[in-house]
Amino acid sequence: MDFYLSTSIDAIDRSHIYHFLRACIFQSSFSSPVEDKLIQGCKVLDIGCGAATWLLELSTKYKNSYFYGVDIKPIYPQEIKPYNLEFIKADVTDRLSFNDDEFDFTHVEFMSFVFTSNQWDFVLSELVRVTKPGGYIEVAGRRNGYVGEGPIFRKLTDAIWLMYSKQGIDVKLMYNLDSKFELQPNIGKVHRIEKDFITGPNGGKIGLVWQDMSIAYFKSKLAIQVISKELGISEEEFNNMVKNLTEEFKQTRAECVHVRFWAQKQLSE
């Protein structure tokens, strides 16, 4: 739930935890059938890589492959990193500085609060462009909206969705992004996989991790300032709402859904 250009240490720590939570619910860090290619050696691109947890994990595991990460904010490791990992500071909404048909696997995740609908069209087209025929493109994110949540959590999350909507970002688009993906040229069948869990103690260990991440976010200085302003309440009133979240999660079953889409690039007709 972070404001996605936040570079605070706490925000980066939450992004690391969130990576492993997603890998846990999907039982993998990716869903495209690229394991054999990664073992043998291939070229991988992750755009909007952030703190690069995904890239650090894969580049350490698949030493025969070479990985590239692109992000506008250089919060990725500058010096201590695997030898087969390279970072490039760039705005991914500009044309990528790579040749056509360069990568075996391209990936973007957790960017639903960053791109407008039109920017998604461009980003997807760029991923397809730089992916080799026979290579795979994977997009992943979360359904930004809950089912079964309590009134406090709903009020807080609705305020977040509204703030991004005012910036021209449709936060609900990610859940149906396969409809845009399918419109790209030279793309095979778009596969879709969903995983869900319950927020809070009713969701077991995963639910408790997500509860702790959510509450930690709402207690961050940035969240307190901007969400209380959006709600038109004092920071003290906002903090009191957040204090009551733990008890609310015990009484509710707020369903959190994550989704991945992947497709293979076809030969040009």
Automatic annotation (TrEMBL):
Presence of keyword Transferase: yes
Keyword Transferase: yes
Domain Methyltransferase: 44-135
InterPro entries on file: Methyltransf_25, SAM-dependent_MTases_sf
Keywords: Methyltransferase, Transferase
GO MF term list: methyltransferase activity
Biological process per Gene Ontology, one example term: methylation
Superkingdom, natural source: Eukaryota
A Pfam family this chain is assigned to: Methyltransf_25
Full protein name: S-adenosyl-L-methionine-dependent methyltransferase
Native organism: Rhizophagus irregularis (strain DAOM 181602 / DAOM 197198 / MUCL 43194) (Arbuscular mycorrhizal fungus)
Taxonomic path: Eukaryota, Fungi, Fungi incertae sedis, Mucoromycota, Glomeromycotina
